[in-house]
Amino acid sequence: MRYTEFTPFDIVLLAQGLGVSVGLFLATTVIGLLIGTLWAVVRFYRVPVLAQVITFVAELLKNSPVLVQLFLVFFGFPAFFHINLGPVEAAVITLSGNTAAFVYVIAVSAIESIGRDQIEAARAFGLTKWQVLRHIIAPQAMAFAIGPLTGLLVNQLQVTSLISVIGVMDLTKIGNILNLRTLKPFIVWAVVGVLYYLAAKLIAFAGATLERRLRAHTAWKGL
Questions:
Q1: Contact 163, 24 (CB under 8 A)
Q2: What's the structural domain count of the chain?
Q3: What is the pTM of this model?
Q4: CB-based contacts of 70: which residues, under 8 Å, 6+ apart?
Q5: Contact 94, 160 (CB under 8 A)
Q6: What is the DSSP-derived secondary structure letter of residue 222?
Q7: Are the C-beta atoms of 54 and 39 separated by less than 8 Å?
Q8: For a tag site, which of 55, 87, 89, 216 has the least CB within 10 Å?
Q9: Counting Cβ atoms within 10 Å, is residue 148 exposed (0-12), middle (13-18) or buried (19+)?
Q10: Residue 134 neighbours by CB under 8 Å, 6+ apart
């Protein structure tokens, strides 16, 4: 076997890289969803000062390049805050913050799509703010937001390819190493592209399935 051959073992290496990419994607998605949703709730209740700060931070994160954010975290945090920050930690911080900013925008739009008359009627029946949020706002907002969220998550999976520039051994990084070793870019990057495509299709399928169930659950069934 020649050193430049692309072997089945290389596919295994790429699959391991995909595992790293998907693992980081899942971790940053959960963190981003929690933070973004919390920010949207703060915005909904118009918490003084904090709501304005959150809006500014979200605008900054969603309107600046992810690669620049990644460099600022990876190189800037250790220099300014004197902390040891590895590539994986930098990737988690950057992607979580970026995801949270877009989740915040989607969640705010979803919450604002709910008629104020429903909220006022719920308050008139004596429901607390937490009960209104849990029983009135959350179910409808989730059904509204699942479509945009699915598109966002597919995009965020693709954004994970940027973390290879700081040394994370993800799918793109391993693909680059194999490309340099085999000198067969068409084969290597075709396999990398197919793996990203399959992962993205799985996310899209899961999102579409969840959306159908949520909309069926919230649909008016009549008396």
A1: yes
A2: 1
A3: 0.87
A4: 90, 91, 94, 162, 163, 165, 166
A5: no
A6: -
A7: yes
A8: 216
A9: middle
A10: none
Residues 156, 157, 159, 161, Cα dihedral to 10°: 170
Give dist(CA 2, CA 10) in Å, integer. Answer: 13
Q: Render pLDDT for 97-125 as a digit per residue (tens, 0 to 9).
A: 999 999 999 998 888 877 677 777 777 76
CATH number of domain containing 179 = 1.10.3720.10
CA distance 35 to 41: 10
Question: Tokens for 126?
Answer: 């004596």
Return the structure tokens found at 121: 């009627």
Residue 202 contacts by C-beta under 8 Å, 6 or more apart in sequence? none
pLDDT tens per residue across span 195-216: 999 999 999 999 888 888 776 6
- Residue 1 belongs to a domain: no
Give the number of residues written for the chain: 223
The Cα–Cα gap between 209 and 205 comes to: 6
Question: Residue 68: which domain range?
Answer: 12-216
Residue 129, burial from CB neighbour count under 10 angstroms (0-12, 13-18, 19+): middle
The pLDDT tens digits for 176-198 are 999 988 888 899 999 999 999 99
- d(CA 137, CA 112) in angstroms, rounded, equals 9
- Under 8 Å between Cβ of 95 and 163: yes
In one-letter notation, the amino acid at residue 197 is Y
